[in-house]
Amino acid sequence: LFPFIEYRGRKLFVEDVDVQAIAKRIGTPVYVYSKAAFSYWFNEFDSAFNDVEHLTAFAVKSCSNIAILRLLAEMGAGADTVSAGEIFRAINAGIAPEKIVFAGVGKRKDEMEYALSHGILMFNVESRQELETLNKVAEKLRKRARIAIRVNPDVDPKTHPYISTGLRTSKFGIDYDEAFDVYMKAKEMEWVEPIGIHFHIGSQILDVSPFEEASAKVADLVKALRDKGLDIEYFDAGGGLGINYHPEENPPSSSSLAERIVPFVKELDCKLILEPGRRISGNSGFLLTEVLYIKRKEGKIFYIVDAAMNDCMRPSLYDAYHHIVPAEKKENIEIVDVVGPVCETGDILAKERELGKCEQGDILAVLSAGAYGFSMSSNYNSRVRPAEILVSGSKFEVIRERETFGSLIEGEKIV
Ligand code: LLP
Fold first, then answer.
1. What is the pLDDT of residues 393-407, one digit of tens each?
2. Which of 41, 58, 62, 150 should be mutated for ligand 1, with most atoms under 8 A from CB?
3. So what's the pLDDT on residue 164?
4. Which of 205, 206, 368, 399 is in Cβ range 3.0-4.6 Å of 67 for a Cys bridge?
5. Mean pLDDT of the chain, nearest integer
6. Residue 91 pLDDT grade (very low, low, confident, very high; cuts 50, 70, 90)
């Protein structure tokens, strides 16, 4: 199906582990990640850029477990973060602060202080007001803030509107035409030091040409800035490379992405930063769930499973496709809706899907859920969030315990 996630005979394996053994020992729902898959996808990405000095800063938001971040740190990854909480996770996992970049349209002062005091590589600044605030915070701490301006290159990444970020109409970054001026302001400020330039055009991008368009525009800006004496050392091209959500689709290779970006970086002689999230984590994990009940009515079959929209939000939120397969192959295909127990009609994991006929108690795998799966989960309906498991070879370990009722009310008070 996907690297390290495949059938052996009739049974679904992740590396050398039968997924039913995980469901049995740990219970369901449960997120399962493969160490070998993480390493495969990290290398597929990172090695594509070997022609230039580069940092692969993993987008923590896609999969934030510190065991996963530690794995990636060991492979040489840095971190792309969007909150002090993510910086905390990255540092906790052993990612060096000099490999951490911090983006986000709404950084609070306390988050800036946190990032500054830990000495992160750079802030990706998204507005004039943020720049001024950062200058003040840095002055207070007597620590210069290294920055890049997040430039909005106004290119269409041709992806889902909710995850397009590089269009003029989006809230992200500073408009291309305005960016030069903002850099000039930054140059005059005592406590910020412009060292880079940043853009991120969107997510789940399957056509790499917009990356070239954006790189070309941003490279022109770098030249103009250098002419004014600004030393732009880092070229941060963001994340966004898409994956296949169906085993039979072929997404672009990371090398084909590199071909669009690397020539500009070479010409500028910059250091390249990349911020892939989904590309590395998406197909390195999946969600296991048990079929609780089956409802067969006229013209409609529902598999009611024990995972729901709170555990895996993408299908409800974006109408996203996640391939679903049984832990043990079935005969007799039927067309079903796979739905969760949450009290919302939108609590759907898959709609009108062809699946082998299941019975109560069967285990299903919701594939490609390594990115924006657990990290977007919530406690809606007071459901405890699933455990997370890391598989390596024939072994697996819990990297996050299933939550308990205690965790549900932690911090709450009856007054
Ligand atoms: N860098 C920045 C500044 C970002 O905002 C993002 C993602 C990334 C990097 C990583 O993008 P990736 O390589 O994973 O595409 N929840 C949505 C995706 C939201 C992406 C937000 N930004 C989903 O489930 O599809």
1. 999 999 999 999 999
2. 62
3. 65
4. 399
5. 96
6. very high
pLDDT at 153: 92
Same fold across 5-33+282-409 and 104-274: no
* Short-list 114, 160, 143, CA closest to 315: 160
Decide if 264 contacts 52 (C-beta within 8 A).
no
φ/ψ of residue 334, rounded to 5 = -135, 165
User: Where exactly are the structural domains of the chain?
Assistant: 5-33+282-409, 104-274
Active-site annotation holds for 63: no
The ipTM value here is 0.99
Q: Which residues contact 284 (CB under 8 A, 6 or more apart)?
A: 33, 34, 37, 38, 40, 41, 63, 370
| 25 annotated ligand-binding residue | no
**Angstrom distances, CA of residue 133 to CA of 10, 43, 64, 141, 145:** 59, 38, 28, 13, 11
CATH of segment(s) 104-274: 3.20.20.10
386 is in an annotated binding site: no
Q: Which CATH superfamily is domain 5-33+282-409 in?
A: Lyase, Ornithine Decarboxylase; Chain A, domain 1 (2.40.37.10)
Substitution candidate for ligand 1 out of 124, 152, 174, 203 with most atoms within 8 A of CB: 203
**Distance from C-alpha of 239 to C-alpha of 80, rounded to nearest angstrom:** 9
DSSP reduced 3-state for 197: strand
Q: Residue with structure tokens 């400020």?
A: 189
pLDDT digits (tens, 9 = 90+) for 295-333: 999 889 999 999 999 999 999 999 999 999 999 999 999
What confidence tier does 82 reach under pLDDT thresholds 50, 70, 90? Answer: very high
Lining ligand 1 with CB less than 6 A are 59, 62, 80, 103, 163, 200, 203-204, 238-240, 275-279, 314, 318, 371-372, 376
pLDDT at 189 over 70: yes
DSSP letter string, 303-327: EEES--TTT--HHHHH-----EEES
Residue 114 carries which side chain, given as an amino acid letter?
Answer: Y
